[in-house]
């Protein structure tokens, strides 16, 4: 384990320098504002993908819910939005980065006291809560913290403090489950 980068990848291959990664993320955020007029986000694209599935399976339901109508009502296609392409590009870019650095493989990151099944169940529950919360808040953590923080939004900075505080409290509470 390196003292400079305390998290060791399971492959043993080093991660990028986090400062260089932060600078590159800032450049991508700037380009996103320049091209789309909006910042980065993840939950909006995933939400539109789910609405597209809903519209394919239950179009009558989509046409009766005002929230869904704005995205997929009538002849609207929920996939015709820049955030969908950003989400697909994010996944493809992450996969390409893993391939290029030789770190792409299937694994379940977990502590020694937790089984793979429990780890996946907890991850699913956490992801579902995060997604639900993101829709309630009309934006996810990446959209609020990265994009809102970059334009010095007070609400985004307060949200970031709350998220980090909550995450540390939750991590402290669940540390025995993980370790």
Give the total of beta strands.
0
Shape: globular
Going by helix content, strand content and strand pairing, the class is mainly alpha
Note the total helix count: 8
The biggest sheet amounts to: none
Q: Give unreliable regions as ranges.
A: none
Mean pLDDT: 86
Reading the helices and strands in chain order gives HHHHHHHH
Count of discrete structural domains:
2
Beta content comes to: under 5%
- Alpha-carbon distance between the two ends: 17 Å
What share of residues is helical? Answer: 55-70%
Rg measurement, Å: 19 Å
List the helices and strands and how they pair.
Blueprint: H1 18-36, H2 43-57, H3 59-62, H4 66-72, H5 82-101, H6 116-136, H7 141-150, H8 154-178
Question: What does this protein structure show overall?
Answer:
With 179 residues, the protein is mostly helical. It folds into two domains: 16-103, no CATH class; 110-178, no CATH class. Helices cover 68% and strands 0% of the residues. It is built from eight helices and no strands. Helix 2 (43-57) crosses helix 5 and helix 7 (141-150) runs antiparallel to helix 8. Keywords: Cell inner membrane, Cell membrane, Membrane, Transmembrane, Transmembrane helix, Transport. One of its GO terms (cellular component) is plasma membrane.
